[in-house]
Amino acid sequence: MADFVSKSVVKSAERVLATPLASKATLNTIVGNILADNPWGCTPYQSGGETLPAVAKSSEYYSGTIIYENNEGKQVGRISVRAPSSGAFDTTISTLLAQAGLETAMGGTASHDSSEDGFSVTLKCHAANGELYNVAFKRDKVSISSFESDGIMTTIETWADTVSELA
Hints:
The protein is an alpha+beta fold. It has four helices and nine strands. The protein is elongated.
């Protein structure tokens, strides 16, 4: 019987943040700076006859909860929200908070505690050595996945050390 033979060693790494990111605005600023400045030295590449960017968002989502409390401060209802973009999340939250009919149906006043919000943005990156890898930012951690070269992790770690929010 034939044996499987390793062809590559795909790695992943994770940095748990000492303090969770304060807000989705903080996350979006970090991601926006990466997309604008390309601090990891990624390179554009060809795929399917198309030139693709060096770094691009491959997925993102934002989640939170609207809580309904009655006059005694007891929680009487909740609505979970998950949106595909920061703008869609803000619009959905503000729309739900403005719905008097929902407050009546729930029997309480609506509120949104952003400290419990979740968010995730994954970037697809093309290293100068030809590797494609992913960097995922969440409120409490940053993960690098699908890379082989230790140089990729070193580059991202060195960069992350310069971003105070990623300590």
